[in-house]
Amino acid sequence: MFKFKSYNIILYILLSIFAFVWWHINTLPIWIALLTIVPPFLAEFFSSIRHSKMLAYTYTHRKRFAYSIFLLCTLSAILYYFLYPFHIVYKDLSYIDKFILITQFLLQGAIVGLTIRILLLNLFADMIRAKDVHNAKLLIMLAWIVFIIMFPLNEKHRSISSIYLLGFGLGIYMHYAIRLQEKKNVLRNRLKMNILTMIETIKREQINIAEEKLGHKEQMILTSEEIEAVKLYSNQKWKKLSAYIREQNETPTIFFIQLSMLRMQHQYEAALELINEKLENDNIHEPFQHYYHLHYALNECERFNKNGEWVSREKIFHHLNQAIKIEPNCLLTCTTYALCIASELSVDSAQYDTERGRAMELMWNAMKINENKPIRRIVGYATGMTIPVTSTFLLDSYGYILLKSGKRKFAKALILQSLFQDPTFSATFYHLAEWYYDYFIQQSTLSEPINENWRQAAILNLQIAIELERSNDKENKGTYIFVKSRKLLEKIKKLA
């Protein structure tokens, strides 16, 4: 650790010397040189785990960070333009030469800004994965030196500095905008996968009933109303979806989309009330009955006390048992049941081996169902084209169950892959933090010194999970992942 600190100190000394020499060559005041070495020092200061809350906030609220930098660069560019007016200095140039000069420095600034943002995200990724961050910091420092070198400092080109600064801000914003669309697509596909997996089972049951009555095969298609509801759900247009559902006649598909929407909005009591009405009045031959029990368990899982313990554990497992009994080959039911069992697994329990085997059996069955299900076809009906659907939910679930079953190496690989595919899924950050915590416990039993990187990574992952849940929980009701993350965070902070 001391070696790395010395390494960082040397790098910052070299950066400071370079800044002062470079600014002295260009005959600029010392305060400007001091200003240019502030950002790397700030990055070093805030990358400490002591500021994990701020790091997590910056990571989860990248929109505010990108807009702030862009606004700061734009205001600085306006200031520089008034100090060194471009149109006066280069008034003798032709319009073509002016266009070439502006384009050149605008693109130079954009490339540097885009590169620095990529390197910052790489630094975050290394911190989350408990990897050594010194190389990532070195690359950021080198990129900042490039920013200083390419900055038009000499008196002849100083009026171009406003264009360069504007390009720098644009580069950071452009990279954010591109990544934002990727994140939206991933989240949309994850929601679509969950809802279409459920709809597919409903449609299959409806087809079976129709075939029995009509005596010929029916096609699995969605109505125009169902397609619109799926699109609104996938895009998280909750107000529009709620109004749209009220206008439609109730069908099994529309009803379960409504239940899924209520759960996403944290309106668990409203969802449970609707399910209870169905369970009380349902015909025993209702083909979708297992989904009523599954949704009951899913909503009941989000009802917990201040210690993070389920309010009605018996009801959760009762309804899961009912759901799996009615339909043993339901992908969502198998995965949900396996996760609920895994969340309570403890090596000290007398039922550990039995429960672990049960969770693994359910998860393997879910993976087998996923391999054989024609999900692409029904997605095609809903979107008008065949698109690949992310498997983040299954990867994360399988990784967590392997972790709780003691298979740590493969579990970490699956959880990290899930995190790479979807950095918006808060449960994955929590599960990775729990993996690090298990690693601490394993090391302490072997009487080996704990690597501080693992502890720091766990704290950062938990802070990100908490911040993501807080962002999604608009009404501040609290979520299961939020409470569990807070509890685990307290445990890890107590580790020496």
Fraction in beta strands: under 5%
Helix tally equals 23
- Low-confidence spans: 375-390
Order of helices and strands: HHHHHHHHHHHHHHHHHHHHHHH
Give the termini distance in whole angstroms: 16 Å
Tell me roughly what share of residues is in helical segments: over 70%
Radius of gyration: 28 Å
Average residue-wise pLDDT: 79
Number of strands: 0
Largest sheet: none
Shape field: globular
Report the structural category: mainly alpha
Task: Report on the architecture of this protein.
- By secondary structure, the protein is mostly helical.
- Helix content is 76%, strand content 0%.
- It is built from 23 helices and no strands.
- The chain is globular, with a radius of gyration of 28 Å.
- The relative contact order is 0.08.
- Residues 375-390 have low confidence and may be disordered.
